[in-house]
Amino acid sequence: MTGATTRRAGPEQLRSRIAAELERTRARTALLTEAVDEADLTRQHSPLMSPLVWDLAHVGNQEELWLVRDVGGREPVRRDIDDLYDAFKQPRRDRPTLPLLPPQEARAYLLTVRDKVLDLLDRVAFTERPLVADGFAFGMIVQHEQQHDETMLATHQLRAGPAVLHAPPPPEPTVRVDAEVLVPAGEFTMGTDTDPWALDNERPAHRVHLPAYAIDAAPVTNGRYREFIADGGYEDPRWWSPAGWQHRREAELVAPMHWRRDGDGWAYRRFGRWAPVRDDEPVVHVCYHEAQAYAAWAGRRLPTEAEWEKAARWDPVTGRSRRYPWGDDDPTAEHANLGQRHLWPAPVGAYPAGASPLGVHQLIGDVWEWTSTPFRGHPGFTAFPYREYSEVFFGDDHRVLRGGSFGTDRAACRGTFRNWDFPIRRQIFSGFRCARDARPEESQP
Length: 445
Prior knowledge:
- The chain has helices at about 10-35, 40, 50-70, 105-125, 135-160, 220-230, 240-250, 290-295, 305-315; strands at about 180-185, 185-190, 205-210, 215, 260, 265-270, 275, 370-375, 395-400, 420, 430, 435.
- By secondary structure, the chain is of the alpha+beta class.
- A hairpin with a 2-residue loop joins strand 6 (about 265-270) and strand 7.
């Protein structure tokens, strides 16, 4: 239940779609956790990530807290594990030392919780109570589990050992993509008031006026990023902010994460397999500081979050903001590289059906795109249903990423969806595109 077609669904249709989304999501969780043995499930593959078995039980615990206990008013299944799987009480680096449920017990716990949820789904009344209206609480849980599935996919990328995940390669390019697109000055509607499963930080809808600007028609590619490396971009402090240069030196950054020299070129490791870096694919696994330095080297800048969203949603013919660049319909395999259908970004020009009306490509899927905007609430923001989803992260410490990646599910990705992370993070599937202010002659109507 993710698209515009679900907004006016009747109760039985709503139940059916929620059940399908719960099942589809759990199948992905199972794939990610059953692909490895128990030793890999319980091992911490990076201090930045939880053991996979923690994520596994955590998604069940959140489902129990919100659906079984809150919506359903039922007795707890396992109150004794609430603190173990509280992400705010248990830092990731400490989770391997906790008395976590072993894999078999964690799976049994998820099954018990899910049985109770499906029983609840058969009986729940979708009242005007905000938590259950339009099935919001169920949608929140689907999105939460899909977000952890993407986190587990990132953990798989960090694990050592042979490949255990498999998927076909992304489609090849079918169109040539322009270098950049001019977005005219004017207002557009940012955020949403109508999407039934939109989370609190996507709300409320509000009008934003932007001057004219140009934005890359596609994400920055490996080929362009290799030029930055070859030109000494990592050795030249001119391109880096003071914080970025300090981090580059302390972390000894010389290339995107998972890259290594391969003769005269580069190779990178994708889920246990080494492959040559392909020039026409979007660069992935770069932090905000690297993206910002590249943009400065290229004589450009990172787009603001509002600039990214206008390029992705604004229809110059109707003046309205679409749910996705191509319209309001849910993504298909023709529109975007989403949902772990493939295990790396598609080359530029592979998804012409997903382009925006202005001709901006691959805004959804492939790579999360860094913006220059700190994470804050939209004007009129109200925390719902709890402050810890968004509000506690507001401030200058986090930068907003938009658009989703090849590992993001369609349920957790739309033109208003907002992600955020620390500027130094690059284990996530992060890339970027550049923007610039329009020149005076371009700004004329």
